[in-house]
Design goal:
The chain has about 375 residues and is mainly alpha-helical. It is about 35% helix and about 5% strand. The strands form 2 sheets. It has a two-stranded antiparallel ribbon. The protein has a two-stranded antiparallel ribbon with strand order 3-4. The radius of gyration is 32 Å and the shape is elongated.
Length: about 375
């Protein structure tokens, strides 16, 4: 029996050798017939169109941008820690910003939002946050769009019925609208208006840290009546920065100093001199004195502390839900104006006449 099994096993092995030999025959078969030739395409001119891409997509262009960005608060600031919260993510988280602009999410009131669930991780904004695919590659006719994720007019979060569009001769594509998405008041508190008292339950009462777009537009301040007139809002006013310049024109202009302009977003002196032929203004006349005066009057009235935070009714501790400030309408308006102008950080340059009116009229009220 064992011999039979051995013979069968040897037959299987010999068959396998035969199979290998048959299937590995080195003799080639006959070639098949050639297919039909395709139609020749039209030869393009070498290099045409490539230089337009290389103008931006090259190390010579990208490296200085990366270096400049690393110097900016967008690149090295600490605010990204706030981006896990759904209400903060649209500006303090790269993914939240993208989600907000996508239009795929709504908050409880049905307004445009980042993901209401929030985010497990918050990342600083990257190139891919602000930039995406080109809208058009017909640069000759459509202009260079710089692949900005959105340059559409912006509905304000504090009041979605108000839309800002910074498109003008200095920014024909409206690229500054991308800045407006975040550099605007948050929706935590409405602008105090009318005559009804205002109950303030947070020491951080105000428009938040970025009211630049609305101040440039000449809106969302509390227009207390006084001896100083308010200029018209938007393009109807005499604010030449609003009508003749833009966020990108001033903050991203070319500069011989690598620490200014471009993606540092620090306004350069060369950019200012394109309009201010007689020298760069240091700021709005008497701005520092007027802002300090407004601070001191609010402090003396025990509405804010020395650092500018709102105090509760006890006049000692900061405002909270357990120690609210029951402010008159005008007191709340004066506080709002102080916080708006102080947080803007431009020393009134964004809208000199509007800032002057807000300061002077708030001071006049508090001195009564």
């Amino acid at each position: 029996m064992k011999n039979l099994k051995l013979i069968g096993f040897l037959m299987i092995i010999m068959s396998s050798f035969m199979f290998i030999q048959c299937t590995s025959d080195p003799i080639a078969g006959v070639d098949g017939k050639d297919g039909i030739d395709g139609v020749d395409g039209i030869n393009g001119a070498d290099g045409i169109g490539v230089q337009e891409c290389v103008a931006c997509h090259s190390d010579a262009t990208r490296n200085p941008i990366h270096d400049a960005y690393a110097m900016s608060r967008h690149g090295n600031g600490s605010s990204w820690a706030r981006g896990t919260s759904a209400s903060c993510a649209q500006c303090h988280n790269n993914e939240g910003y993208i989600d907000y602009l996508s239009g795929n999410f709504k908050d409880g009131d049905g307004n445009q939002s980042a993901n209401p669930v929030g985010y497990a991780v918050s990342n600083a904004i990257t190139c891919k946050g602000c930039h995406t695919d080109h809208r058009s590659f017909d640069f000759a006719n459509d202009g260079q769009d710089y692949a900005i994720r959105s340059n559409d007019p912006v509905k304000l979060v504090i009041d979605p019925s108000v839309v800002i569009d910074f498109t003008n001769n200095s920014d024909k594509l409206g690229l500054s609208n991308s800045c407006t998405t975040c550099h605007q008041p948050r929706n935590s508190y409405p602008v105090p208006a009318g005559t009804d008292p205002v109950v303030i339950t947070s020491y951080r009462y105000g428009p938040h840290h970025s009211p630049q777009a609305t101040l440039l537009e000449g809106i969302m301040g509390a227009n207390i009546a006084g001896s100083t007139g308010y200029p018209g809002a938007g393009g109807s006013g005499d604010n030449t920065h609003r009508k003749g310049s833009s966020c990108t024109a001033c903050h991203m202009g070319e500069s011989a100093d690598a620490s200014e302009g471009g993606h540092t977003w620090k306004a350069s002196e060369e950019t200012c001199l394109t309009c201010h032929k007689n020298g760069v203004p240091s700021g709005v006349t008497d701005f520092d004195a007027n802002l300090q005066s407004l601070h001191d009057l609010l402090f003396a009235k025990k509405l804010i502390d020395a650092e500018g935070y709102v105090l509760g009714d006890d006049g000692i501790n900061r405002a909270s839900t357990t120690n609210p400030l029951n402010a008159s309408a005008k007191d709340a308006q004066a506080i709002w104006n102080y916080k708006t102008i102080e947080e803007d950080k431009s020393k009134g340059v964004h809208n000199p006449k509007y800032v002057k009116a807000l300061l002077k009229n708030s001071i006049e009220y508090l001195q009564q």
